[in-house]
Amino acid sequence: MSLQNGFKNLGLHILLITGGLVSLFPFYWMSVIATNKSSDVFRYPPKLMFGNKLFLNLKHVFENINFGTAFTNTAFVSTSAMVLVLFFSTLAGFFFAKYRFPGSLILFNVLLVSLMIPSQLSLIPSFIIISKFGWISTFKAVIIPGLVSSFAFGTFWMRQYAKDTIHDELLDSGRMDGCHDFRLYWNIGLPLLRPAMAFLGLFSFIGTWNDYLWPLIIMNNPKKYTLQISLSQLKSIYGSDYSMVLAGTLLATIPLIVIFLIFSKQFISNIAAGAIKA
């Protein structure tokens, strides 16, 4: 029986390793092309070894677009959206999970229904509203609509997590110590919601960082361009230097990897701690 379990575990590990390698191959291929010439994209058999053209390709990226400004803009927009999503989603999710007030169920159901509406349907109404506010080509025009679109999922996610994690006895103890509602959320709710916040922060940051369509519609000032818009300008109608494009893409991907490692470590450690306590 133990031998059979050993073979099952071995097969599972082989399957997971294979899946991991398949998932990592596009990133590896992007890195390879970013260090070689553009013509190597069409080589047969394909070139799978790193070259020595990375710094030359990066030089071309910086010559063709204002990468530093676009990077700073994207970091500011993504970080602001992540912080706002975390605050409002945890606040709403906590109160939906632990408080009953008139219309709470109706409001939550409306929130769920909004998840079923494709975001593309709101592009024109959102553009009209943003233009009425005079926010065209401002960071507010990117951050706030993105916050609204992520709020529904974030609130649902936090409510479900808070229902199972935050016990009513803890809140009752806090009330006996004189805590008001917001302090219960801040001192009791937030520490227990950290694993869910790690996932939501990662989800929100990556989604905002990679967003292309809405910033393309709302931004017409090159000084306010995000990375995705700037990287799209590396392509030409007469031809594309794929090595340059992928070098810029590689440079834009590195912060996402760092953010993923930071948040995933927090997420996994808290999940493991919860499993041990259970």
Features:
278 residues; mainly alpha; 12 helices; globular; disordered C terminus
* Count of distinct strands: 0
By secondary-structure content and strand pairing, the structural class works out as mainly alpha
Write the element-wise H/E pattern from the N-terminal end onward: HHHHHHHHHHHH
Please report which band the strand proportion falls in: under 5%, 5-15%, 15-25%, 25-35%, 35-45% or over 45%. under 5%
SSE map:
Blueprint lengths: L1 H33 L19 H11 L2 H32 L5 H12 L7 H11 L5 H27 L2 H9 L4 H12 L1 H16 L3 H6 L8 H6 L9 H36 L1
Give a verbal description of the structure.
With 278 residues, this protein is mainly α. Helices cover 76% and strands 0% of the residues. The chain contains 12 helices and no strands. It has helices at 2-34, 54-64, 67-98, 104-115, 123-133, 139-165, 168-176, 181-192, 194-209, 213-218, 227-232, 242-277. The model is unreliable at 272-278 (pLDDT under 50).
Quick gist of this model?
The chain is mainly α and 278 residues long. The chain is built from twelve helices and no strands. The longest helix is centred in the last third of the chain and has 36 residues, at 242-277.
